[in-house]
Design a protein that fits this description.
The strands form three sheets. Strands 1-2-7-8-9 form a five-stranded antiparallel beta sheet, covered by helices on one side. The chain has a two-stranded parallel ribbon with strand order 3-4. Helix 5 packs across helix 6 and helix 7 packs across helix 8. It has eight helices and nine strands. It starts with a helix and ends with a strand. By secondary structure, it is of the alpha/beta class. The model has no long low-confidence stretch (mean pLDDT 89).
């Protein structure tokens, strides 16, 4: 009788152990499902918040009625807003500060000034010619070119664009040294441009910046010692107000501001989207 009771007790203990393990497993599964549901909910909300950040920046660009585009303008400053427990930070950069790989005047010399060797430069030109009027349709298309490595792409991508027609012009107020060199090949002129742009405090993007516009372009270039004939040539290389911008919007839901959604887009001031990527 005692042995029988002992066997029953052991059986009951095993049943309790099994039920406990099942309970733990179910709780773990439920906890995982709750976390997954929360993540999916936040991901959906983050997508809409990021889109709102892009829309707000486009609205701000539409309100910008200056006759120039420069680094000390409001669109070049990071902004943020909060909604529904999420925080959005958003900012625009000038897409016309980048060199246009779809330029109808693209040459090996331009690509060499961007740091590419002769072989890869020629292959890029051959590929672009093969594509005809379409040109590059997405920037990652560069990986379809023989010899294009991730290192070469990473070094090139921050300085180029394909999203603004086939013009060569870059914004003289916002383009960096590497892009200005790609366009002009004139280091002395580039130094003069930066000296004028930075103003007395010798910093880009501050209130005392010298800003090129259509009205003063010839006057400022004349002060650089450029001849009237050459000024006309440079006017074909530069503009002073941009119509295309790269907009970045990041969304977080936690105090540590960990980004759970990032949207990168390229858009016109009018709001037309040319590129959209969610990460």
């Amino acid at each position: 009788m005692i042995k029988q009771k002992g066997s029953i007790l052991i059986l009951v203990l095993w049943v309790l152990i099994i039920l406990s393990l099942l309970s733990i497993a179910i709780s773990y599964r439920a906890s995982g499902d709750i976390k997954l549901a929360k993540y999916e909910s936040e991901s959906i909300k983050a997508s809409y918040l990021a889109k709102a950040g892009v829309a707000k920046m486009i609205a701000e660009l539409n309100r910008d009625n200056n006759n120039y585009g420069s680094l000390n303008e409001d669109w070049n400053k990071e902004k943020d807003f909060s909604f529904g427990g999420g925080r959005v930070t958003y900012k625009a950069t000038d897409e016309e500060a980048r060199f246009n790989l779809n330029s109808q005047n693209l040459s090996k010399e331009h690509l060499a000034r961007l740091g590419l060797d002769d072989d890869i430069s020629q292959r890029i030109l051959d590929y672009k010619i093969k594509k005809g009027e379409k040109g590059f349709e997405f920037i990652e298309e560069l990986f379809l070119i023989d010899g294009m490595t991730r290192d070469v792409y990473s070094a090139l991508e921050p300085y180029v664009t394909i999203y603004r027609g086939n013009g060569l012009q870059v914004n003289i107020n916002t383009a960096g040294e590497k892009v200005l060199r790609a366009v002009t090949g004139n280091d002395i002129l580039i130094s003069s441009i930066f000296e004028y742009r930075k103003g007395p405090d010798e910093k880009d993007g501050t209130e005392d910046d010298g800003i090129f516009n259509n009205g003063n372009f010839s006057i400022v270039f004349g002060s650089f010692g450029i001849t009237p004939e050459d000024i006309l040539n440079y006017q074909a290389m530069f503009n002073t107000r941009s119509g295309f911008f790269r907009i970045l919007a990041d969304v977080s839901f936690s105090e540590d501001k960990k980004i759970i959604k990032r949207v990168i887009s390229v858009a016109e001031r009018s709001g037309k989207i040319y590129y959209w990527k969610e990460e």
